[in-house]
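Field reference: sequence -> structure
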Amino acid sequence: MAAPAGRGLRYNPPLFSTVPTMTCAPIPPAFIDALDRADASWRPHLLRGLEAVAEADPAYLPALAADDYLPTHGRLFAAFAQPLERVRYVLVGEGPYPRAESATGVCFMDGAVGELWSETGLSKPVNRATSLRNFMKMLLVADGQLQVEDTGGAALAPVARAAREGSSIRTLAQLQDNLTAEGFLLLNAALVFRKHVAPALDARGWLPFLQTVLAVLAAQPAAPTLVLWGKIAEQLRKLPETAGLPQVVAEHPYNLSFIGHEGMQTLFGPMRLLRAR
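Structure field:
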């Protein structure tokens, strides 16, 4: 996920109705087509979210459609492949990775990463994806395989050998599968990354969409837990739609301090996400 830039979000929006409304501008076809990546249970809600964006700022979606942005290949709503009724946690990061091969439309799932381990520790692609690297180290600390004060290469080498020879997951796809099985919806506050636009500005543009999504989740029989990473995501706590949702907040995982975050260890530790299933 890209590092935050520019000013923070200003959250003072109206609540958006769950009833479809007339928009001030048509929704560009590329965004309608991208809904095909979402589970059918989400499609009407995501369409309402797009309508809310168009109503709040009629120029935003047409300008975005004419611009270069990540993720590519219609993966804008790929996170919503998780069916609505299975969502138990909503993890919100800040924005897509700023690399075309890495931005998948799923929060912090780097498309350039295949293998998680090397012979001497974490693989080079994992180490390049700072957020993913620190998340992996946090999981290893939570699992008792690393000590928080010693997560460097020497400590990682025997852990990596054991992972490659034992019952640990081997690939990022398996980690994503484990998160999905636990009921995670992996979102970003800004659904797109543009190199010439501050993430906070695109997050502001997508705010009506996220409000619609969060209102739908808050209305579910079992309200999911909101997991917020970083300053942009944390501002979602100010929304009326999140008032009834359990919330866990941490600094963004690109910070080294994330590795030792006790709240994250408490949340993720029992899930044993690095174990093959």
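Note: Residues 3 and 94 are 8 Å apart (CA to CA).
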